[in-house]
Amino acid sequence: MADASVNDPNHPDIRARWGGFAWTAENRERAAAIIARYPPGRQQSAVMPLLDLAQRQVAEETASGGWLPMPVIEYVARELGMPPMRAYEVATFYTMFNLQPVGRYLVQVCGTTPCMLQGSDDVFAACKAKGLKKGEITHGGLFTLAEVECIGACANAPVVQVNDDNYEDLDFDRTLAILNALERGESPAPGSSTGRQTSCPEGGPTTLRTMAVENHDYRGEWA
Amino acid sequence: MPKLTVDGIEVEVPNGSTVLQACEAAGKEIPRFCYHERLAIAGNCRMCLVEAKPGPPKPQASCALPAADGQEIRTDTLTVKKAREGVMEFLLINHPLDCPICDQGGQCDLQDLAVGYGRGMSRFEENKRAVNEKYMGPLIATAMTRCIQCTRCVRFAEEVAGVEELGTVFRGENMQITAYLDAALTSELSGNVADLCPVGALNHKPYHFESRPWELRRAPAIDVFDAVGTNIHLSSRARQIVRAIPRINDDVNEEWAADKTRYAIDGLYRNRLDRPWVRREGKLQPVDWAEALAVVAERMRAANASVAAVAGALLDAETMAAAKSLLRSVGSDLYEHRQAGHATPTDGLAALRFNSGIAGIEEADAILLVGTNPRWEAPLVNTRLRKAVKTGSTVFAIGERVDLTYPVTWLGEDLSLLGRLPAEVAERFRGASKPAVILGEGATLVEGTLGDALDFANTFNLVREGWNGFNVLSTTASAQGALMLGFAVPGGLAELAARRPEVLFLLGADELELQPFAGAFTVYVGHHGDRGARVADVILPSASYAEKPGTYVNLEGRVQISERAVFPPGDAREDWSIFRALSDLLGTPLPFDTHDQLRARMYAEVPALARINAVAPAPWSVPVAPTGASGRATLPVQDFYLTDPISRASPTMRRCSAEILHGQTMAEAAE
After folding, report:
1. How many whole angstroms separate alpha carbon B290 and alpha carbon B322?
2. Which residues of B378-416 are buried (b: 16+ CB within 10 A; e: fewer)?
3. Which range marks the domain in which residue B392 is found?
C-alpha cells in the first residue's frame, strides 16, 4: 500500500452532509468535561478523546459505524482552537480513527504472530465464508472487515475486536457463530469464547494451585 | 559552560548547546538532514549519530543530545561510521534514483552525504514506496516520492512562517508530507521550504528544470522589493538571471527571503524598455540614444531650472546622487522620492527610520503597530515580530485588521486612538522595559500621525539608554537612501507639483499620481514599460537592480552594496551614465566619468554611505510635526505580489496574486 487511500476530503457531498456537524447536547457536556481535564492553554491535548467522541456521534447519527469526515475533523479542530492540519495529522496517525465509512460492526481481526500461530487464518476463513470483505461494507451496512496488528490480547489468541469489544480464543465455528449473532441483532458476550475466565490458563491453573481456592502463604515452602 | 572533548579535542560550549553544536565547535562535520539551526530540533533523521560517554553503549543522535560537562564524544569511530551508513541505507531504500532529472541534483544534501556514507549498491529487493504528487501552490514544485520525512518544511511553516498548513499525515512507511487539502500555501515566505528541503521533494516551481547549480554565476546582491534589504545571490546563466536565493545575514534576513524576492525575477525579462523612445504626434517612436538625449537636453535648456525628478521605489543611492547632481547643475532643487505624497519633515532622520533595528525588534516586550501590515510590507520584519511574541512580547495594533500570524490586540481603526490609548494598554507600555511603536507608511501619510507617535514615544519613554523603540516601517528600497541624500523637498510631491516643473524626470517612478504634473514634459528613466513609461514623452531605458552595482539603505539605515549580476538588455544603460551624458549635452559635464568616481563623490557628500554593512548613525532628534491625527490609514501594500514594475511584469507573481490572494484555481498542465 503505497498511498493510504482516503475519501476525497473536499467532495461536495461530504461537505454538504457534514459541514453542519455540531455536538449533541449530551456530547457537548462530555467534550467540556474532557477539555477540563487539561490545564488552560493546553486544551489541544484533548484532540484524541474529542475525535473519538466525534466518531461515536457520527456512528449514532448514521446508525452505522463511526468515521471522521473532513468537516468533522475541522469541527473538532475549531473547538480546540488548533489548525485543522494538526487534527488531521492525529486522525490519520491512529488506526482507531476511520477516515472512510465503515459498517456498523468493524470486525478487526488480529493477524500478528501469536494470533496467527493460534489460528487467525481460520478466523479470516470464517469471515470470508460469511461474506465479509477487507475494507468494504457488506451485509447492507452491517460489517466491515479489517486486518489489524497486535491488539494486545495475545494470551487469548486469536482475537477479534468488534467495535469496543474483544472476542477471544476463537476458531472457525465460534467466529461464524459470533458473526451470525451480530447479524441477528444480538449482542454476543465479549471475552473468551471457550468459557475460560479472562486469560487464566486453559484447563485450570498449573502453578500456584492452592491460591486458586484460597489465599495461601507459600513462604514456608521455599527451600 | 560545559566542557567536553570531541575526538580528543577539548571544547567549551555555551549552556544549552547540543552535542552536535559542540562537535561543530571542535571543527567536526556532522552529517544531518532534519537538524537546522533556525528550527526546532526534531531528531528524526538519525544521520548525526555519534558515540557519547557517559551514556548507553550505542550511537546517539547528537542533534538532540544536550552537551554536558565531561562528556567524551567520538565522531570518528568505526561504530559511528557504520551506524551512519546504516541510516543512509534505510533512507535510500525508498528514495528514487532519479538524480539526473531532479532539480536538487548538484545541491542535494542526500546526494552529497551518500558519497560519504552510501553503499555502492542497494541490497533492497522489494518495491520502492511511491507517494502521490502533492499540490502546494504556484511556487513549490513537489516530488514527494523523494521525501525523507525530515519535517524541516513542516517546522518552518509552523515556527517561522506561522501558517500551519503543512503537516505529516499517516504513519510509518505511509507517512507523507502534505499541505492541508492540497491548497496553495498562504505564506509570503513559502519559497524557503524549498531551500530547506535537503532532498528534491520540494523545489522551486518557477525554477523547475531551469538549470544546474554548476552552470550558474552568482553575484551578491541586495533585494529591492521591500525595504528590508534582504541579502541575496542573483544567479545568472548566460545573460539571464535564473534565480535569486538568500545569503545569510543574521542582522537582516537571517537566511530567509520573501517570495517576491525569489520569484519576481522573471519580470526582469518581460515588458523591458531596451531602446529609447520619443513621443511624436502623440505616439512613441523608437529613436537612438543621441536623438533621445538631444530632445531631452533641448527641453531642459528651455526649461532652465524648472526641472523636477521623482525617484522610484527600486532605486539605488548612486542613481539618486547622479540625478541630484544633474538637477543641481541646472539650478533646480526639485527632487522627491515619496511617491505616495508624504510631506512629513525630513530633517530628523531618526524619526523616519526603523530605529530598533530588524534584529533588535525581537527584544521589544510591548509593541504598538500603527496603520501597518508588516506581513506584506516587510515579511522578514514580521518574522522577527513573531519571534518577539513567542518570547513573551505583547503586540497591539491600530488600523485595518489583518492576519499577522501571531496574536495581536486590535484596538480599532481610527488613528486618533494613538493619542487616547485605553488605560490597560497604556499601563502595559508604562511597565515595559523595551517598548516600541511601528508606524506604517499609510499611517504617516495621515497628517498628524507622526507627531502623535512622537508624543507617544515621549510619553512612554520609548527612547532610552540602549534602546530606541521608535520605528517607521519604510516600504521602498530607495526610501532611506533618498532621505540620507536629501532627495526630498519639505512639502513633498504636492510642493513639487505646485512649483509647476516644465520637465519632469521619473526615475523608475510608477506609483505616483501624475495628474498634478499634466503640463510637464515627462522623461521616464527606467527599465519597465509600466505606468510611468505609458505617459512619458521620452523614455530613456536604464538598468534594473540586477544590472547595476548599487548602494541600498534598508529600513533600519543599514548601508549595503549590491553587485551587477548581468548587463542591461538591448540599448539600456546604467542610470548614472544617462545623467552624465545629458549633462554633457547641457554643457555642464558632471564631475564623474565612472561609477567609482560617482561613488566617491557620493561618499564625500554623505560619508555615512561609505560605511558598508553598518547602520548609518542617526542621532535621536524630535522634529516639529503636526499632531492630532484622525481617520483611517490606508495600507501601502494592497497586493503583496504586485507592488512595483518588476513584479507586475512577472507572470509568477501575477499567478500568485490570482491564486493565493484572489482564490482563483489554476489548471495544472500535465507533466
Report:
1. 20
2. bbbbbbbbbbbbeeebbbbbbbbebebbbebeebeeebb
3. 355-473
Q: Is the pLDDT of residue B133 over 80?
A: yes
Nearest CA in chain A to B144: A3
Contact in structure between B473 and B378 (CB atoms under 8 Å):
yes
Q: Please check whether residue A11 touches B, CB under 8 A.
A: no
B181 vs A contacts (CB less than 8 Å):
9-10, 70
Q: Smallest Cβ distance to B174: which of A4, A9, A86?
A: A4
Cα–Cα separations (whole angstroms), residue B397 to B163, B406, B423, B438, B640: 20, 12, 15, 9, 20
Neighbours of B571 (CB within 10 A): 15
Residue B472's H or E segment, with its range, is strand B470-473
Mean pLDDT of chain B, nearest integer: 94
Cβ–Cβ gap B130/A89 under 8 Å: no
Q: What span, in angstroms and rounded, lies between the C-alpha atoms of B146 and B93?
A: 11
Q: Do A142 and A71 reside in the same domain of the chain?
A: no
Q: What's the grid cell of residue B327?
A: 538637477
Report the C-alpha gap between B45 and B40 in whole angstroms.
Answer: 14
Distances (CA, A) of B110 to B23, B142, B150, B213, B591: 20, 17, 11, 16, 55
Does the beta-carbon distance from A92 to B171 stay under 8 Å? yes
> Does residue B21 contact residue B49 with C-beta atoms inside 8 Å?
no
| CA-based nearest residue in chain B for residue A7 | B181
Tell me, what CATH number does A64's domain have? 1.10.10
Q: Quote the CA–CA distance of A170 and A23 in Å, as a whole number.
A: 38
Q: What per-residue confidence (pLDDT) applies to A113?
A: 95
Interface residue A1 vs chain B (CB under 8 A): yes
Query: What is the distance between the alpha carbons of residues B315 and B318, in angstroms, rounded to a whole number?
Result: 8
* Across B38-66, average pLDDT: 94
Sort B565 into a burial class: Cβ within 10 Å, 0-12 / 13-18 / 19+: buried
Q: Note whether A78 and A148 are same-domain residues.
A: no
Q: What is the pLDDT of residue B467?
A: 94
Q: Which of A3, A4, A88 sits opposite B180 (nearest CB)?
A: A88
C-alpha–C-alpha distance, residues A170 and A156, integer Å? 8
Q: State how many domains chain B has.
A: 2
**Residue among A47, A89, A94, A97 with most chain B CBs within 10 A, to mutate:** A89
Contacts of B111 (CB under 8 A, 6+ apart): B99, B104, B105
In this structure, what C-alpha cell is assigned to residue B527? Answer: 527599465
Residues B34 and B63: beta-carbon distance below 8 Å? yes
Look at residue A9 and tell me whether its pLDDT is greater than 70.
no
Angle at B101 between CA B99 and CA B103, to 5 degrees: 80
Let me know if residue A127 belongs to a domain.
yes
pLDDT at A2: 33
Contact indicator for B331, B305 with CB cutoff of 8 Å: yes
Predicted TM-score (pTM) of the model is: 0.92
Least Cα separation, residue B175 to chain A (angstroms): 9
What's the rounded mean pLDDT across residues B408-417? 94
Dump pLDDT digits (tens) for A73-101. Answer: 999 999 999 999 999 999 999 989 999 89
Say which CATH number the domain at B18 has.
3.10.20.740
Which candidate in A1, A85, A88, A95 is best for mutational testing of the B interface (most B CBs within 10 A)?
A85
The predicted-structure confidence for B336-395, as pLDDT tens digits, reads as follows 999 999 998 888 889 999 999 999 999 999 999 999 999 999 999 999 999 999 999 999
Among B451, B473, B495, the domain boundary falls at B473
> Chain B residues within 8 A (CB-CB) of chain A?
129-132, 164-171, 174, 176, 180-181
List, as one string, the DSSP characters of A14-46: HHHHHTT----HHHHHHHHHHHTTS-TT-GGGG
The CA radius of gyration of chain B, in Å to the nearest whole number, is: 27
User: What are A65's three cell numbers?
Assistant: 459505524
